[in-house]
Design goal:
Blueprint: H1 2-9, E1 17-23, E2 25-30, E3 40-45, H2 49-52, E4 55-56, H3 57-65, E5 73-79, E6 91-95, E7 102-106, H4 110-116, E8 122-127, E9 137-138, E10 146-147, H5 148-159, H6 165-190
Parallel strand pairs: 1-5, 5-8
Antiparallel strand pairs: 2-3, 3-4, 6-7, 9-10
Protein name: Peptidase C14 caspase domain-containing protein
Family: Belongs to the peptidase C14B family.
Pfam families: Peptidase_C14
């Protein structure tokens, strides 16, 4: 996965739009370089993480965020536990009302600001949950277990192609409760 992340940003040019998706396990671990507000690094756990180690947010940022040149845009969909700041971006936009109002939150310690930005590009991430929360899985769409956030992202994009980021986030916000409801109904009907 590390080599695939390097490939993603290799030779990118102004006008390029990159897409990074991860749906799987995630974890938190103590932050040893003191660049996290909450004292923890977030990480993704590819299938070989027990032998190769998890990929922590500092490495993800250094590989696919900091290297983004001016005119390149990265869209990331991260569907894992503890994923809120797994790309170590400077700001987070959080829905604060059912009407779709947002609150902008600064997410970096002063020591991290100089090290965590892009090289002029734009990085946008949709995360399944906050850094201290776990994400959910369901089989609502395909009958196969997948991340709820991934399912809601796909449904929102299909329902409203070309949507703005805000509308996409709102659509996902309204889809997720129905997915959890469908999951709970299926679980009780088919699992006793």
């Amino acid at each position: 996965m590390r080599s695939a992340m390097k490939w993603l940003v290799q030779d990118c040019q102004p006008g390029d739009s990159l897409f990074f998706h991860y749906s799987g396990h995630g974890l938190r671990q103590k932050d040893y370089n003191l660049d996290e507000i909450d004292g923890f690094d977030e990480a993704i756990c590819p299938i070989d993480f027990e032998t190769e180690g998890p990929i922590i947010d500092d490495e993800i940022n250094a590989t696919i965020v900091r290297t983004l040149p001016r005119g390149v845009k990265l869209h990331a969909v991260i569907d894992t536990c503890f994923s809120g700041t797994v790309l170590d971006l400077l700001f987070m936009y959080r829905i604060i009302s059912r009407e779709g109002h947002y609150q902008r939150e600064y997410q970096r310690s002063p020591a991290a600001v100089r090290k965590k930005g892009t090289s002029g590009g734009i990085a946008i991430s949709f995360s399944a949950c906050d850094d201290h929360q776990t994400s959910a899985s369901a089989s609502a769409f395909t009958g196969k277990v997948t991340g709820v956030m991934t399912s809601s992202f796909i449904q929102a994009v299909q329902n409203e192609p070309g949507s703005t980021y805000g509308r996409l986030l709102n659509a996902m916000h309204y889809i997720i409760p129905s997915l959890v409801f469908i999951f709970l109904i299926n679980y009780f009907l088919f699992n006793g």
